[in-house]
Design brief:
3 helices, five-stranded mixed beta sheet, alpha+beta, globular, about 130 residues
Length: about 130
């Protein structure tokens, strides 16, 4: 299911300049997980020391917080230092995450492990209540 079906298309640059509305322009997400319409995880990857800034940060905050009213939602920002070849996103390191309206700094946790932690904590809370 997670296999890339059209690598050539994926590698092509998408130009969104025709979709500018004043100061508003599209942003992208690098990944999205939906665990049974109850837990949503959004993933954004950044290269090296790049940071989530400006309009993209605001858009992702608003998306996360809006979804949070109905579902448990988090955004995980991960860092990749690999300059060439295929990137194993599950092995990237979480830089920061947003949960319940706040940003947190992560410390040395791989994305796969962080998602499992969010998943397990969410379902433990659901079963305890």
């Amino acid at each position: 299911m997670s296999e890339i079906k059209n690598r050539d298309y994926l590698a092509r640059i998408k130009n969104f300049s025709g979709l500018r509305f004043g100061s508003i322009s599209p942003t992208d997400l690098d990944g999205f997980l939906d665990f049974g319409n109850r837990l949503f995880i959004f993933i954004e990857t950044k290269f090296a020391d790049s940071q989530l800034r400006g309009g993209q940060k605001l858009a992702l905050e608003r998306l996360c917080d809006a979804c949070q009213t109905e579902h448990r939602t988090s955004i995980l920002i991960v860092t990749n230092y690999q300059e060439e070849g295929e990137i194993d996103i599950g092995e990237t390191i979480v830089q920061q995450y947003r949960l319940r309206g706040r940003w947190y700094t992560a410390t040395d946790i791989k994305l796969r492990d962080a998602i499992e932690m969010f998943y397990n904590n969410f379902y433990e809370e659901q079963n305890a209540g």
